[in-house]
Structure formats: C-alpha cells, structure tokens
Amino acid sequence: MTDDAPHDENARHAEKMKKIKAARDRMMATKTEEKGLIIVHTGPGKGKSSSGFGMILRCIAHGMPCAVVQFIKGNWITGEAEMIRTRFADECRFFVSGEGFTWETQDKQRDIAAAQRGWEIAKAQIRDPEIRFVLLDEINIALRYDYLDIDEVVDFLLHEKPAMTHVCLTGRNAKPELIEAADLVTEMTLIKHPFREGVKAQKGVEF
Amino acid sequence: MTDDAPHDENARHAEKMKKIKAARDRMMATKTEEKGLIIVHTGPGKGKSSSGFGMILRCIAHGMPCAVVQFIKGNWITGEAEMIRTRFADECRFFVSGEGFTWETQDKQRDIAAAQRGWEIAKAQIRDPEIRFVLLDEINIALRYDYLDIDEVVDFLLHEKPAMTHVCLTGRNAKPELIEAADLVTEMTLIKHPFREGVKAQKGVEF
C-alpha cells in the first residue's frame, strides 16, 4: 500500500530519533560535576564580547549576581555596556579600565597603569563570594602586550578563584598559558566580513 | 643618560601607535556604506546564540526595535529568552517555533510544521518596516534537515528583506548557499569543552 510510505518514513524517523535521544541521555547522565569554569573567547571573528554579554544576560535572568570589567575598550561606548550600566546596575557591577585601544591613547605607561587597575578590580570581584560570574572583557589585549603578567593571572585563576565562580576572558590572541588553564575555549573564526566591501561599523552589529 | 631610556621607549611607542592610528583612521574612512546585513553564526563552538542575544541587547540599548524567532529549541527555556520575554517585551518581540530538538520530539512531521510556522513569522517580522534587527535563532538546524527550503530562505533574504534591516541566523552546519549569500559570517570553533571532563551544563554558561 503506497499510502503507508509517509507513515513508514515517520516511524523510521521516530525510531532513529529515539535512539539518538537515548544515547544523548546516557551521555548527559555522566556529566554530573558542577564547577566554576575558566572560559575563554578568542580568535579574529566576531562574537567574543557579545557572547560574553549574552552570558551576563543569562546570569541576570537566573538571579546570579555578576560583574563586568572592561579592559582597553574604555572610550568605545558599546550598547551592551550602556545597557548593563543603566538598566541592570543592581544585578551586575560594571567597571571600565582604560581609555580606548592602545593606538588611541598612544601612551604606553598610561595603558599599563589602566590595565593594572583593571586587574586589581577584577581580583576583588572574583574573590567576592556574592559574585557568581565575572566577565573580563578584552583582557587578552592587555595580556598580549604584557601590560599584565600572564603567569600571575593564570595562577590567580587556578588557585585563588572560588571553586564555583565562573570567569570569562575575551579578546583576540589569547596566550597559550591561558588556553592551557581554561576549561572552555572557543575561537571565533572570521569567514566573511563586510568591512572588506566598504561597509562601516554599524549600531547593533558592531557596537 | 640612562634616565632617558624609559622616556625614549615611551616616545617610540607613541610614534608607533600614532602611525597605527593614522593607518586605521584612513582605513575606516573608506568604510562609508551602511546596509542591513545578513549575519551568520555557525560552527560547533559556543557563543552562536549568546552573541546573537548580545546583539539584541545592543539594539535595545540603541533604541532599535527588534525581534527574535527561536527555531527548534522550544522546550529549552534559556535565561536570555526568559529575560527578553519578561523584561524587554516592549522593545523586542519574541516568538518560539518548535518544541525542542528533533530528538526530543521524535516526530518529523510536527518538526517540519513547526519550522514552517517559524519561517512564516520570521518573514513577517523581517518585512515589518518598524523592525531593525531580526534574530533567527537555531534556524540552521531546520535548514540542515531540509525542514525549510534553503533556496526559498536565501531568495527571501536577498530580494525581499528591507535594505536596512539586519538579520542574524544562528546554528551549526550553516548551508553553503547561506554562507555565500551572507555579509558577515563567523564560525565558532570548539577548542576545549568541559563536557569532556564530566562537567554538566550549567546556569549562566550553557543556558
């Protein structure tokens, strides 16, 4: 009976999906540990900061107090930073360290001092037992230029971070020491970018 | 005079940064076009949906009305979805299409019908001249299983999307036709994931 054909296909599909679900459920049942993660978003593609801020949004939604420290990007007022500052001040602490990318300030000593101030704030936020998630936005740029000592940062994250606190570090060119220490690392790879076609940075997309 | 050494280094740094800034300013001056972008977040790494929601946060901050259509992921209540629904209902429209990943429903015809309903909603939101940014979260999964016709979706984005509206499509395994049509494509690459070490999905990080 040809009328059975779609029915048969549905039955086969259901059977296949049932097996996938069973395998997935078995796999997920082995994942029982909870711990505070060291999360790194790096690579030349987009989404490193915006997915960090997406996680902040998740934490706020779940009632988890959180903190953001923005390194380097200081004078670039992004929409999400403004949003956190104006609408979520009670749920997420917000700090800015630095005054724009280093080619904007043209003053290395000032950049180093700003990065160091940012790191002191970061340590205090991470140590605070109230805070469950800390976003260190663009800290990889400060680490890359050695404005912060990578060994000190990694040592702090591994040995002084409270066990259940998540810390997310963003920015291009994450140092190998940080990647080695991290639990969850994502590289954002650029496949296509409209700058190449002469399109400028636009609201909502780039900032 | 040895005391001049740090001063000299500062001067060299300032000179170098001045040149970088000038080159960057010249480059950015050539980027003058504004247009609504077709944005794709794909790849097996994290951050595809969360950076899409980060962009939504940016749009809300800039006063740009926006819309989210969630495909497939229906019964997985994420923090950011809950946040948009409860706190930003006036600024961002929110729609759910589907009832969970396909291995949860085990019913292909129901999944196809849900994907089609989601696409009808998506088209209406994209066509709406009030809406400046539309996030089609996890639509790539529906496209991958051919629950939606890739040619129809690409044709609509290229020829019926209003010129200034941004559309962001997320999910693994983006089809080549979509990547070809897109303006801005980022692949999230998995470098390290804590599931491998037995750590379960956690609030704020995974959902």
UniProtKB/TrEMBL annotation, chains A, B:
<dbReference type="InterPro" id="IPR003724">
    <property type="entry name" value="CblAdoTrfase_CobA"/>
</dbReference>
<keyword id="KW-0067">ATP-binding</keyword>
<keyword id="KW-0963">Cytoplasm</keyword>
<keyword id="KW-0547">Nucleotide-binding</keyword>
<dbReference type="InterPro" id="IPR025826">
    <property type="entry name" value="Co_AT_N_dom"/>
</dbReference>
<dbReference type="Pfam" id="PF12557">
    <property type="entry name" value="Co_AT_N"/>
</dbReference>
<dbReference type="GO" id="GO:0006779">
    <property type="term" value="P:porphyrin-containing compound biosynthetic process"/>
</dbReference>
<dbReference type="GO" id="GO:0005737">
    <property type="term" value="C:cytoplasm"/>
</dbReference>
<dbReference type="GO" id="GO:0005524">
    <property type="term" value="F:ATP binding"/>
</dbReference>
<dbReference type="Pfam" id="PF02572">
    <property type="entry name" value="CobA_CobO_BtuR"/>
</dbReference>
<protein>
    <recommendedName>
        <fullName>Corrinoid adenosyltransferase</fullName>
        <ecNumber>2.5.1.17</ecNumber>
    </recommendedName>
</protein>
<comment type="similarity">
    <text>Belongs to the Cob(I)alamin adenosyltransferase family.</text>
</comment>
<dbReference type="GO" id="GO:0008817">
    <property type="term" value="F:corrinoid adenosyltransferase activity"/>
</dbReference>
<dbReference type="GO" id="GO:0009236">
    <property type="term" value="P:cobalamin biosynthetic process"/>
</dbReference>
<comment type="pathway">
    <text>Cofactor biosynthesis; adenosylcobalamin biosynthesis; adenosylcobalamin from cob(II)yrinate a,c-diamide: step 2/7.</text>
</comment>
<feature type="domain" description="Cob(I)alamin adenosyltransferase N-terminal">
    <location>
        <begin position="4"/>
        <end position="28"/>
    </location>
</feature>
<dbReference type="InterPro" id="IPR027417">
    <property type="entry name" value="P-loop_NTPase"/>
</dbReference>
<keyword id="KW-0169">Cobalamin biosynthesis</keyword>
<keyword id="KW-0808">Transferase</keyword>
<keyword id="KW-0627">Porphyrin biosynthesis</keyword>
<comment type="function">
    <text>Required for both de novo synthesis of the corrin ring for the assimilation of exogenous corrinoids. Participates in the adenosylation of a variety of incomplete and complete corrinoids.</text>
</comment>
